[in-house]
Amino acid sequence: MGIEYIEKIVKLINEVETYESENILEAASKICKATLDNKSIYIFGASHAGILSQEAFYRAGGLININPIFAPEVSVDRSPITLTSKMERLVGYGETVAESVG
Is residue 66 pLDDT above 80, yes or no? Predict the structure, then answer.
């Protein structure tokens, strides 16, 4: 199973390169421009995706202009955890979160 797993991962990485290179370059360009223009870059993730926001924020060697949007209602420390799924689907919740950041 070990080699099959590695082969699958390599295949997925190659697919990302094939199908998403243009999008990745566009995102990188926008991040670069925002940084050079001294603008903030806001990041957000609901539930487990929020962990990625935390990883990108305030890391040694990271960008100073990264500003996470933490929304406690969709954090993985919510109990019951099923509440996060309900909040993610709540009409208007995203707009409320965005407005709270300015």
Answer: yes
